[in-house]
């Protein structure tokens, strides 16, 4: 169990309970909040929802700044150079999460497309081993069987140094 200040935000159950998956072309998110009352909802969003979003979207860089601007704002930067600014002045945390999900969240179809196979090496028939198509090449038809099953024909022959000793002894 994590210890320290606010440990529940670092538990696996809490981080995994986040529902928001971002679009694949979202690269950076910049959250600017202030110490004023209008920014309280964004501060709650950063405290409660950003750890879950970061856990679910590990390739997205999320940065927070304080008092950089005089108003709370969320900037979303996409991979194609597009930039979206969301005004979150006097909004609550759930409202911000809903707006953020509509702007940068992936739809059901995009989420299904982005699901990767657990072991992509199984698709390539040249990969062998634990995560490969099959464990050993001897399981493929037309290949030499494993020496553990059928001994190699030259395994019983004497080695070169044993031949020298036999020649000098005789």
TrEMBL record:
SMART domains: L51_S25_CI-B8
GO cellular component, one term: mitochondrion
Localization, UniProt: Mitochondrion
Family to which this protein belongs: Belongs to the mitochondrion-specific ribosomal protein mS25 family.
Database matches in Pfam families: L51_S25_CI-B8
Occurrences of domain Ribosomal protein/NADH dehydrogenase (ranges): 34-107
Protein name: Small ribosomal subunit protein mS25
UniProt KW keywords: Mitochondrion, Ribonucleoprotein, Ribosomal protein
PANTHER family for the chain: MITOCHONDRIAL RIBOSOMAL PROTEIN S25 (PTHR13274), SMALL RIBOSOMAL SUBUNIT PROTEIN MS25 (PTHR13274:SF2)
Database matches in InterPro entries: Ribosomal_mL43/mS25/NADH_DH (IPR007741), Ribosomal_mS25/mL61 (IPR040049), Thioredoxin-like_sf (IPR036249)
Entry's Gene Ontology molecular function annotations: structural constituent of ribosome
């Amino acid at each position: 169990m994590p210890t320290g200040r606010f440990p529940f935000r670092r538990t696996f159950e809490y981080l995994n309970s986040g529902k928001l998956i971002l679009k694949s072309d979202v690269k950076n998110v910049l959250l600017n909040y202030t110490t004023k009352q209008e920014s309280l909802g964004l501060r709650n969003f950063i405290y409660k929802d950003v750890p879950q979003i970061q856990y679910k979207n590990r390739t997205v860089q999320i940065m927070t700044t304080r008092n950089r601007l005089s108003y709370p704002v969320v900037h979303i930067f996409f991979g194609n150079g597009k930039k979206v600014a969301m005004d979150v002045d006097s909004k609550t945390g759930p409202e911000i999460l809903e707006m953020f999900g509509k702007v940068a969240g992936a739809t059901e179809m995009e989420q299904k497309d982005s699901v990767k196979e657990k072991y992509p090496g199984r698709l390539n028939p040249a990969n062998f081993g634990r995560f490969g198509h099959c464990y050993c090449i001897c399981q493929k038809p037309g290949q030499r069987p494993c020496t553990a099953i059928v001994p190699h024909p030259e395994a019983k022959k004497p080695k070169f140094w044993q031949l020298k000793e036999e020649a000098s002894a005789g």
